Amino acid sequence: MSADDDQQSDAGGPRVLVLGGTSWLGGAVAAHAVARGASVTCLARGRSGEVPPGMLLVEADRDAGAEAYAAVIARAWDLVVDVARQPGHVRSALQALSDDAEHWAFVSSCSVYARHDEPGADETAALLPAYDGDTAGPDRYGEAKVACEQAVTAVRGDSALVARAGLIVGRGDRSDRFGYWPGRFALAAEDGGPVLVPADLERRVQWVDVRDLAAWLVDAGLAGATGTVNATGPTTSLGHVLQEAAAVAGFGGETVAATDDRLRAADVEEFMGPRSLPLWLGDPEWQAFMDRDVSAARRIGLSCSPLRETMRSAVEHERALGLDRPRTAAGLGRADELEVVGRVRDAR
């Protein structure tokens, strides 16, 4: 970062530092902060995407520990937003920056909870054991986020906002866990084929639009909001979600409903991963994974866009990526889906 860049970062407006501003959520946080007149600096490796317009990028690898923050220390930050998942990254950031940060927001996850079978559980629910180490693999994501939360609390006490995000969706999402549905209905509207859906459409679904989460992190963070809250949206039925997905996709064709047992017999996985059916959670131990109390977050300003608006963003993103692309993160490829449809029909 040059001297001119440094002068630009000292321009008017609140000073916001985003740790990871080129990733999906981090980029949305940075973009919203710029839109509300903040001077925004993003510290990131710069490999996850483009830096949103109007902000400065400080390229650094957080694996380097405290040295990674050399270019951003000893400054008065009005807000630091950290989206990290590795405990070591969170600890080193706090060590380097906490004394100079008026407000701190950390993005955690509802995956920190030990159980997901109690509808409407709030933030007092039992957590997973904290990961003991600095770097965790994807299979220890929840435990790592618990350790991250503990690190934030150890340094900031009760003067931080810890946002336990739910399923984050919308434009830019590459997880396919939500966008699969408007994308699949759009593809079926083009090819005239049926769409496979779970038979139980009353199960609860809960999500948060990336734009809503990002805006709230910045606005609530700068306002001095603190506490640990479930940062996701209200619940609705899976049937309502699929109805909206079909509507924005212009789908008016046939849906084929399959029970949990028939989906399992066809080797379809739940929720995510290859050959899965997104948003389907038939396991009783996971029935409330997307059904958590969000009243605490709503009290400090989290509001959510209408489902139709989020669906429109999702289907536009799906069309840009390609409706018939291979599905590896979540979802069924079209050929696999039609094969399962055939098996379900044969079993009737």
Automatic annotation (TrEMBL):
Gene Ontology terms: cellular component: cytoplasm
InterPro entries documented for this protein: Epimerase_deHydtase, NAD(P)-bd_dom_sf, NAD(P)-dependent_oxidoreduct
Example GO molecular function: aldehyde dehydrogenase (NAD+) activity
Ranges for domain NAD-dependent epimerase/dehydratase: 101-218
Domain of life: Bacteria
Name of the protein this chain belongs to: Nucleoside-diphosphate-sugar epimerase
Organism: Terracoccus luteus
